[in-house]
Amino acid sequence: MKAPGSEKMDELEVRRRLLTDPYRLSAEQQEQLKQDPDSQQFHQDILQLDQQIRQLLSPPVPNTLEHSLLLQQHKYKQQQQKRFYQHLVALAASVAFLAGFALNWSFFLYGSQSLGENSLAHVYHEEPYMQQRMTALSLADVNLKLADFDAQLSASDYNVVFANYCNFRGSRSLHLVLDTEQGLMTVFVVPKENSLSFEAEFHDDKYQGRSIATHKAILVMVSDKAETLQRGEQQVLNSLQFKA
Fold it and tell me: Could you list the residue ranges that cross the membrane (predicted)?
């Protein structure tokens, strides 16, 4: 005969085990559930509550989530590719600039064999900066540089907007840019002792030039207009004097 309260303890023990693990029931537990409808209902309530907790902890994935993730991934890849190509273009531009710069200077120093070729190379090199150098220089500053070539410039109808030394295949020369009424004209004062072959006239698709040999130096004049070259040449010969 069972002791008073032992049946109740059995029921409590069953429920305690159900709370501990409602999914793995021993044969003895299953038999007890069959005999106790209240315990069966308690077991069902425990299973239902566990399912609700699982749903709360693991919400369903929206149908559009996968599409959104794929779209974001695609946009990210596009941005990465865009940045990569931008860096690549910038790098290519830098390499092209350096290559062009090196080629340009190597042409000045080694590539050009004639006076005309070398003069045109210098004109093209300075061309992008000419519009920023349209301020007239003082006659004293220009003559200070011309003095190295035993030359002097008198007052004239044109302004000198650029005057600087340059290298003609190892010969220290003077690069002048004149602002005449007909337009810009470049004048080079090149020592007669230079390694370049003399050219009285030369031209390319844009510029034309003339070279005049004096007893002290060679004057090379370059312009993109025939009228500027013709009138400017006479103006230079009238205003630029070399020492005897």
Answer: 84-110
Provide the angle, in degrees to the nearest 10, between the axes of the packed helices 6-20 and 37-57: 20
CATH 3.40.1000 fits 115-242, yes or no: yes
Residues 6 or more apart in contact with residue 179 via CB below 8 angstroms? 134, 136, 158, 159, 160, 161
Domain ranges for the chain: 28-57, 115-242
pTM score over 0.85: no
Burial 153-171 (b: 16+ CB within 10 A, else e): beeeebebbbbeebebbeb
Q: Which two tokens stand for residue 51?
A: 């399912």
State residue 182's pLDDT score: 86
Instruction: Give the residue from 196, 198, 202 showing the smallest Cα distance to 229.
Output: 202
Let me know: does 184 contact 130? Beta carbons within 8 Å: yes
Residue 180: which of 109, 238, 235 has the closest Cα?
235
What are the tens digits of pLDDT across the range 78-129?
677 667 767 666 766 665 555 454 445 444 444 557 899 989 988 988 888 7
H or E stretch covering 209: strand 208-213
Residue type, 202: F
